[in-house]
Specification:
single chain, membrane, DUF6069 family protein, transmembrane, DUF6069, mainly alpha
């Protein structure tokens, strides 16, 4: 006799099909988008509002190597999110719920992190806003790509 929620002994375990090419190509596109969000954020806050984020004011609108660092970290975070959602889709029930919680909490951490620095308040707020927008972009884009990858695998499977 099977207990609710358990498979009978010897029954095949249901699996979820994932179109990995769709998932990872969408993940690379997400990495590009969030890197550009970081760049736009720096340009807007430094150029339009004159807030010296990531570099001293004398470094101009584009900032310095820290801008490239932020863009790179955003892109790597997106790729880590794709790896995480891939793992969750393969192994976890309600994978996208867990993914949303994990990325949401990481976004909170990224949004709060600038406030532990010695920067002025405007720089902290600008950095926090950029971080939160990047987190929301990763959450929305990777979740959508994951849904598409599962749906495509089902249609093609």
């Amino acid at each position: 006799m099977a207990v609710y929620g358990q498979q009978p002994q010897g029954a095949p375990v249901p699996s979820r099909s994932i179109d990995a090419r769709t998932l990872w190509s969408g993940g690379v596109a997400t990495a590009l988008v969030v890197a550009l969000i970081a760049l736009v954020g720096v340009v807007v806050f430094r150029g339009v509002f004159g807030i010296p984020i990531l570099a001293p004011e004398g470094d101009g609108v584009w900032g310095d190597v820290s801008t490239v660092w932020l863009m790179s970290v955003a892109a790597v975070a997106a790729l880590i999110a794709v790896a995480l959602v891939h793992l969750l889709l393969l192994s976890t029930p309600r994978a996208l719920s867990f993914f949303s919680w994990i990325v949401g909490l990481a976004t909170v951490v990224a949004g709060v992190a600038p406030f532990i620095t010695d920067a002025d308040l405007a720089s902290k707020l600008a950095s926090a806003l950029i971080n939160v927008i990047i987190g929301f972009a990763i959450l929305g884009l990777v979740s959508g790509v994951a849904r598409s990858a599962v749906a495509r695998a089902v249609r093609n499977g």
